[in-house]
Structures are given as structure tokens and as C-alpha cells.
Amino acid sequence: MKIGIIGGGSIGLLFAAYLSRDYNVTIYTRTERQADVICKQGLQLILGETVSSTMVEALPIREMKTGADLLIVCVKSYHLKDVLSYLRDNRAALLFVQNGMSHLSQVEKLPHHNIGIGIVEHGALKLNDHTIKHTGLGVTRAAAFRGHADLYKLKADKNLFPLVMEQDYYEMMLKKLIVNACINPLTAVLGAANGELLKNTHYYKLFQTLTEEVTGIFNVSKADMQEYIEGICRKTALNKSSMLRDIEEKRVTEIDAILGFVMEQASIRKKEPALSKLLYTMVKGKELQGEEMD
């Protein structure tokens, strides 16, 4: 099976490092420089004290080949529009693994017969163009958005990189969205690791209020989600959220795909997302501050 992985960020490199053990993998990167580095030096995966290397093919996305059986799209949601033109005439099955839910409207317009949606619960940190550190073991969940679900039942390391198939893509995505909405913006604004949301009593009050607001917008049990999200915070206590890392690295965040979607749904459902609006504005301000400091 031939798999193309679009995106040379942390998730794209993580997928490539594990899937290349069982499949013929090609990574498509934004820059020619990164593709050259991967081709010459291979991918390096760090897990605990273990370092492993593998050679994979890498090309800049403008040189994308046809003939892949599956393309896994790992770019962030705000870069998705830049890669869609490369996908329209490619008849491979597609699997999208973006945070948030705002990208569904773009995915829906694609002509492909087989489209899957995935969510990634692993922690990963990109150290350089060809080195990825697996910082937290989790699972990848996938479900069919359109077409055959069997196309996404990939063989991978069951202990280190398991893939779980879900029946309902919307329910799967909504659960992850609520997790992201309740952890990422708070940690980004507060400059705190995930575990601090539970450890700091003042942060915890904010966390509880935000969880109540977001679950109320989607009519989801607050008690169940609170317990679930707190479990994630404990499991990833020392980790920084991707949004906090983006702020620290002066990059654009996925706030529009996460809280932007929450606020949009609140408007449709005639509910007031007061804290979500405040956090959204604060994260946008930090993005602008990062641009001005560059």
C-alpha cells in the first residue's frame, strides 16, 4: 500500500515515522529544503531513551505524485486551503487529521468518493526538519466521512501508535473539539502546561467555567466531559498544548478552527459564549503581539 503524508510538521513526521515501518510512505513538505533534509538524513524518532531512524521518500508538495492509495493530510487547519488544489485531481482516498471542526465545510466540497476524518491523541514535538519526539502515547481515531471505512484500518504498532476505528465521525470530532477548546486557549493565554489547569486553584475555576460554557453550547454532559478532560490534563500534565507552543514560537494558532467554531455554533444555537469570546480575543492579541515582535 502506498501512503502519502502531506505536511512536515510534528504530526506528519510522527505518522511517517511509524507508518513507514509497514508501508511505502512519501512525505510531502511545504519547502524543498525540508524534503532534501529528510531524503538525505532520514527520519529520526525519539521515544524516551530510544532513538530510531528510517529512510523515507520526501518531496515538496508541488511535485506530488499520483498513484498513492491513501493521502493523510496533516497540515494545520489554516493551511488546508493551500493544499486542496493538489488534492482535487488526485483520486487517492483521503484522511484529514486537523484540530477543530471548521475544516469540514472545505472537506465536504471535495469530489473524492472516499474521505476519512481522524483525530490524533498523541503528544509530539518537532525538534528539527527530520527529527520528531514522541512526547505522549495516545491513539489515532478515524471514521469515514464519505465512502468505505476499511480504507483507514492501517496496520501500525499496537502499543506505540494504535489506530482505533469509530462509527460516527461527528461525535468523535465533537469530543476532541471540546477537549481542545477547554485546554488549548487557557494554556496559551496563561502560559501554563496542561497540568497547571488542575493544580492552580484559580486556573481550575476558569477551566471549570469554560468547560461548563462549551458543553452547554453543544448540549453535552458537563460532568462526563469534565472528568474526561481532567484525565487528559493529568496524563499530559507536563506537556504544553500545541496552541501554547504556537504562541511561544510566534506562529499562527488554530484558534479560529477551535474557539471560532464554538462561537459560530453558539450563535446558531442562540447561546452566549462569553468566556470563549474573551479567550478568542486574547489569543488573537497574542498572535498579533508575536507578529510585531518578529
From TrEMBL:
Among the entry's GO cellular component annotations, what is one?
cytoplasm
Claim: Transcription regulation is one of the keywords in the record: no
**Which keywords appear in this protein's UniProt record, sorted alphabetically?**
NADP, Oxidoreductase, Pantothenate biosynthesis
Gene Ontology molecular function, alphabetical: 2-dehydropantoate 2-reductase activity; NADP binding
EC?
A: 1.1.1.169
The chemistry this enzyme catalyses reads:
(R)-pantoate + NADP(+) = 2-dehydropantoate + NADPH + H(+)
Membrane-spanning ranges: none
Q: For this chain's UniProt record, which GO biological process terms are given? A: pantothenate biosynthetic process
Domain Ketopantoate reductase N-terminal spans what residues?
Answer: 3-145
- Presence of keyword GTP-binding: no
Pathway named in the protein's UniProt entry: Cofactor biosynthesis; (R)-pantothenate biosynthesis; (R)-pantoate from 3-methyl-2-oxobutanoate: step 2/2
* Residue ranges constituting the Ketopantoate reductase C-terminal domain according to the UniProt record: 171-287
**Which InterPro entries does the entry link to?**
6-PGluconate_DH-like_C_sf, 6PGD_dom2, ApbA, Ketopantoate_reductase, KPA_reductase, KPR_N, NAD(P)-bd_dom_sf
Its family remark reads: Belongs to the ketopantoate reductase family.
Q: What does this protein do?
A: Catalyzes the NADPH-dependent reduction of ketopantoate into pantoic acid.
Protein name per its UniProtKB record: 2-dehydropantoate 2-reductase
Lineage, top ranks: Bacteria, Bacillati, Bacillota, Bacilli, Bacillales
